[in-house]
Specification:
Length: about 350
Amino acid sequence: MAVLHNRVSQKELKQRLLQEKEKRITISFYQYHSISEPFVFRDELYKTLNALNVFGRIYIATEGINAQLSFPQSKFEELKKYIYSIDFLQHVRLNIAVDDDGRSFWVLKIKVREKIVADGITYPDFNMNKKGSYVDAGLFNKLTDDPDTIVVDMRNHYEYEVGHFEHAIEVPSDTFREQLPMAAEILKEAKDKKIIMYCTGGIRCEKASAYMLHCDFQNVFHLEGGITHYVNQVKQKGLENKFKGKNFVFDNRLGERITEEIVAKCHQCGKAADSHVNCANEGCHLLFIQCSACEIKWEGCCCESCYHTFQLPLEQQKKMRKGIDKGQNIFNKSRKRLRPRLNE
Ligand SMILES: [Zn+2]
Ligand SMILES: [Zn+2]
């Protein structure tokens, strides 16, 4: 029986990664497909990937798989062959990460979850077999030339804020769970219109399209591979680009610029700006948009109170943080938390 988890400490594993000589590649893919025995599938996957020296994070659910993998360059062909040998992954699109330092993962974790994307859907007869039609960049452009087509952004508010498709509707909620019924409510008068849903990589809008069909919408589409794939296709094929501003990404850059337009405003002074920062006060860490002038004026802090805390000696700051809800220190995404502060 193979060992299905690691028995080596995190520190040791990180050190091993740093000592590796060979370059690593990071890829991601997802597929909605009914998996009847997710635990059996996980064990099988773990054994094979572990033998290929693959690291990463994989979620498996009865509705499908969502994977991010890092592996030595020389194993790419073998890995591809294995992935494509799994019947429902035969034609899966493998997205290769750009700007990759190969240090994204140092251990392989495969978890079985209830869903690959938490959706809060409770309809017993909902499943992912009936979903909207895929559109590629070319068809997306063609369909959206018709002013009657409705484009819906299925990302978080802070992602929409710095960049989105022309005329796209924002569905302003903090979580994807709340966003699904909200989208159906906003669009309830448009059940027979053409509706195109999109998100960053496709996994959320694909589920959203199935949800909309379940709610009796008739003509639902979703953008294949999301914004990321759209932007690549537009560049490769020389198509018109209808995405404006920045594509928010969850790495240190917090966004890649797609066009020069700045569609957002500084949360402090209202001037055009679209750079996300985390508040410099470690006890706050709020994610917000700050222009370069405000960054200097407030030393990277989000408000006056954080600015004053930030001026105190480090030791005192640490003392102040003790006992405070740790939740405040994580990457904060809540619109609710953002709004009151902006009015301070
Ligand atoms: Zn400003
Ligand atoms: Zn702050």
